[in-house]
Every structure is written in C-alpha cells, then in structure tokens.
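Entry type: protein chain
Record version: 2
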Amino acid sequence: MRSNSSRQRSRILELEEATRPLDPDAGERDRLMAGVHAYAQGFLDGLPERLAYQHDKSSVAALRELGIGGDTHSIERLIGQIDESVVGAGLVPSHGGHLGYVPGGGIYASSLADYLAAVTNEYAGVRFAGPGAVEMEDAVLDWMAALVGFPEGSDGNLASGGSVASLIAMVTAREATGLRARDYERAVVYSTAHVHHCLHKALRVAGLGETVRRDVPLDDDFRMCPDSLAALIAADRARGLRPWLVLASAGTADTGAVDPLSRIADVCEREGLWYHVDGAYGGFFALVEACQPMLAGMERADSLVLDPHKGLFLPYGTGAVLVRHGEALKDSHTYYASYLQDTVVSEWGGRSPAAVSPELTKHFRGLRVWLPLLLHGEAPFRACLEEKLALARYFHREIEALGFETGPEPDLSVVTYRWVPETGDANAFNRALVEETHRDGRVFLSSTTVDGTFLLRMAALAFRTHLHTIDLALDVLREAVERLEAHPERWRAGASGEALAAGLAGGSSD
C-alpha cells in the first residue's frame, strides 16, 4: 500500500512540474509582458500611419500553418503573427478612420481593466463568490439608469453586447406580459423596417418567431410615425389579434434616426403594450445636454438596451440592458441548482447577475466600465460624443458641397449620401464607389440600402476620429469619384459586390 501511495505521489509531483509553464514566475512574467507591452506601444503609436482597412486578406491563411497544441513558439513570433494575420487583415476597429457600421471603441484604460480582470479572474456571476465584482457591476448599472432617467426599482445586466442584451429584454417582455405559446400567432410586434436586426433575431431565439410583425411607416427623416403606429394597433385589435410589443430606436444603424420616443411611449401606455427602446447606438448621447430633448422618452421604456462599446468607446463585448421593473427581469431569468445552495443562503447585498441573465459563467465586465469612468470622469466622454455630433454635421455639409446627394440632417453621428452620375445606374456607381474606398483603405466607409436605393454611410463614433479624419474621408471620396468617372467601365458593368457582401456580413458591431 505504501509503495502504491509513493508511486502515486511521485506521479502527481511529476505532473505538477509539467504544469509550471501555466504559472510563470515573476521573471518570466516580466519577459512576456515586455513583449506584449512593446507591441501595444508600437501599435498605438503607429496607428495613424496604418490603413484603416486592408483590402488584401491573404495573410489570414498563415494562422493555420502554426497549428494548435503541438509545437511551442516564442511570444515574439506569436505577436508578429497576430500583427500580420489578425490586425493586418480587414478592418482595424481601433483606427480613427473606422467610419463604417457603428464603430466600437477600445480606450486604453479599459484594456488595463481587462488585464486586471483576467489576472485576478474574479467571478462576476454570483454575489456570494464575487461580492465586489457584482457590486461594481451594480454601481455601473445604477449610473446608467440614472443617466437615462430610469426609476428606483429598475434593474439590469452587463451583457456581451446589444444582441444578448436584446435577448434578455425580449425574454423579460414575454414573461412579464404573460405571453404563452398559444398566444404567439396572435401577438403583434410593431417596429420600423430600420429597427436593428438583432431584435428580430432575439424574438426568434426566444421562441417568438411565430409572432405577427408590423412595419410601422416612416416619416421623411426615417423616424417611426406614432399616428401610424396607433392606427395599426387599432386595426389589429379589430382583427382579434393581441398587440403586444413596440420596438423603437434611439439611433438606427441604417441612418442614425431617433424615433419620437415620447410620443411612442404615449401610445404604448394608452394601449398597454410593452415598450422596448434600442439605444445601443444612441443611448449614451444622453450625456450631451443638446441631445436630451431628442432622447426624452427613453426613461419611459419598459426595457432599454445600451452599448458601452459604442457610446462609451469601450472594447467590444460590453452591452447593457435595463428593465424598468426589476422584479420582471429577475422573475424571467432566475433558476435554482442544489450545488449552488450556499450562494442562495448568503445573498448579501442583493441578487446575483446570474439571476437576471442567461449567463452563469460571467466575465468581469464591470471593471472595464468602472475603471475609465472613475479614472477620467464623465467630461471627456461627453466631449467626445459632442465632437462626433459636430463632425457628422460638418461631413453632411461638406459632402453635399462636393456634389453628393445627402440624406436628412443627422440626428446623431450617421450620415447617408450617394453620388448620382449623369448617366447610368446610380446604385451600380455607388457599389463601385464604396469598394473603391475599401481598396484605398485610408478610411473605412460602409453602405446600406433604403427602399431600393444604395446609399453610403459615414458613422463617426470611434473615439480617435477627429476633424482631420473627416477631411481625409472627403478627399478619399472625391478622388474615388474622379477615378470612377474617368473609367466608367469599372462600374457600368456592375461592381464586384464585395462591398455589399461586406456590409451584409459585418452589420453593426453586435
């Protein structure tokens, strides 16, 4: 017995020794960190000289050549491969020239927060295990609720982005309103054609794919018409259907339009419908005093989605959902497991994030929001948002002066525009135009289609986007138009379609 025990102990010690690379000592940590830090510094210092978009993506294939789990490689070799095959292919989201979709952020303080969150590996799913991490998340959510005017008793969750946050909201709406499977074919969802596609996806994932969908007409500025909404609801009640949910937008991805939120709230309250506002893009513009009247009505929503990785310029993977009646959020997501019974008995300070979302294993997202807000305060975030509003209006004026046809004066920081050639198909020209800008790569612009019209989009929300970036974008567009007009064969036969395909695949950041 002792001999067997001795052999077992020896084998355990051998295995322990083999694990050593997973827990490097201080000297090895310094060496690894030096490589990472040197690359990060060089990347950030060299960012203005990089292309915002690398049209040639052939370097991606080299990632497969390294294999996984076999040979080991130096940190310098691996960082070099990351730079070549990941950062050096396609879009550089941290670039100030990212003017497509709705740009994400990546402020430096949040990268430090993520480093600390990963090193400490704090668990943010259950309050019993990580009371500080959970309390930090709650403090951040309380700040967001106060910013948009949600009342005491509201609750929320930090999610991976607007898509998962929207799923949480749709499940909460389903349960809070007592909707059951037998009701789905009669339940009606109202939105505009420009509502973010993640909401329709969330409804389907939540089992609500059989609900009736109504597209509410838009006004000339692409905003929902509340009178048309009311008329559709009345007509559906007359048909014996069950009007259930209204989806409004505080900044659409297509055009940046903000629906008339207060008037829509009036309709929802009068008709007894759940009111959801998608503020993933535009919600944090509430920090800007001039935007507050336009965003009034967000505080009357039953559920609201915000994306800190958009309007607070944080790294991707930071979304938030707020629900006016916190108990509705908890009732729709709480489950019990006997192996977690200790955590239930010891719920000091309130509920756990796992009780208000699909996640049990939860990343410590609160730190990447909390640290920069306490390090910098609100002022630079407010200034950055106000700057983007001014840049959008500047671009709208200047692009029109160059001869482009422009969409409405921007509500927020998205501008739609197109070039109309003297002869030929304008859609084909603008497909070729957006691809021409992608081949140039100095800035990244995207496109959308509204009522069959192919439009270009400029979305100013990257925190490194400044006046010189917009001036560069104007130069890129002017030069691209000149090249295409000088070579009509490049667009009259039809553009390659890569730009359109990229727009469909990329969408917004969630």
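Comment: The chain has a mean pLDDT of 93.
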